[in-house]
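We were asked to recover a plausible sequence for a given structure. The inputs and outputs are reproduced exactly as logged, with field labels preserved.

PROBLEM: sequence recovery
POSITIONS: 264
GIVEN STRUCTURE:
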């Protein structure tokens, strides 16, 4: 059987084998698609879009790693015309359509610690599963009559109330890097209280070029050049007025480097 939410916002259990088979066949989470497009690595979430472009997003709670890598939760769905909702490693993002440059213009909405198995738009509302049947009752919770299932229903704008976007990670963590080769772009836009640490394993000083893309259009400009002596860590809190959508790093010498950011 399955549960159905009707036009009166009543959640009821249904025993319809034909419909159940249709649901299983057509609405199962696309596991192989998810695994191909999204990879959780040690220091970031790697996204490879349909054009082969590489992007990196911050990590949330470690509990999301296995859930994401095993494709047990939906990560992307169109909820408004030309507007996808992307839920990855504990953060909801607004994801424009590919015609509007897709991941290049992604924007974090809010961060959370909820295991949201699936979500969809329904009669103008956003409906999400993953709610415990015994969860505290609120105006957003709809329970089945038998008490064994529950969903959350609200507006898309309610997501902004979950909590401000936060995250941690970076494009490199003890990664072998080559002189002159830039890292993948890493999202830095729309977060508060951003800090950066850069370190390397070389006994000699290594220079790093820190570049930013303010708009996501692929126009990179130098933000800062730093020279880091062996055994030291460069630490940098970004000023409150700092604005950029993406950040990347280029080393001056071959080494093993870490470029780690934290957003609180």
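RECOVERED SEQUENCE:
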């Amino acid at each position: 059987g399955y549960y159905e939410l009707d036009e009166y916002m009543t959640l009821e259990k249904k025993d319809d084998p034909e419909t159940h088979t249709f649901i299983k066949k057509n609405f199962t989470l696309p596991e192989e698609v998810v695994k191909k497009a999204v990879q959780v690595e040690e220091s970031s979430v790697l996204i490879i879009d349909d054009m082969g472009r590489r992007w990196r997003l911050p990590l949330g709670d470690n509990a999301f790693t296995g859930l994401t890598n095993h494709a047990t939760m939906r990560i992307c769905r169109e909820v408004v015309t030309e507007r996808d909702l992307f839920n990855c490693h504990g953060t909801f993002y607004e994801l424009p359509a590919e015609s509007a440059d897709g991941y290049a213009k992604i924007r974090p909405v809010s961060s959370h610690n909820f295991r949201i198995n699936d979500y969809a738009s329904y009669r103008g509302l956003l409906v999400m599963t993953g709610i415990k049947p015994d969860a505290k009752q609120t105006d957003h919770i709809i329970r089945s009559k038998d008490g064994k299932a529950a969903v959350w229903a609200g507006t898309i704008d309610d997501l902004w109330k979950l909590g401000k976007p936060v995250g941690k990670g970076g494009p490199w963590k003890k990664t072998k890097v080559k002189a002159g080769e830039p890292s993948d772009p890493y999202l830095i836009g729309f977060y508060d209280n951003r800090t950066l640490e850069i370190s390397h394993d070389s006994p000699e000083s290594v220079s790093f070029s820190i570049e930013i893309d303010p708009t996501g259009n692929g126009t990179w400009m130098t933000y800062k050049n730093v020279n880091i002596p062996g055994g030291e860590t460069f630490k940098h809190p970004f000023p409150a007025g700092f604005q950029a959508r993406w950040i990347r790093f280029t080393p001056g010498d071959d080494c093993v480097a870490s470029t780690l950011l934290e957003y609180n």
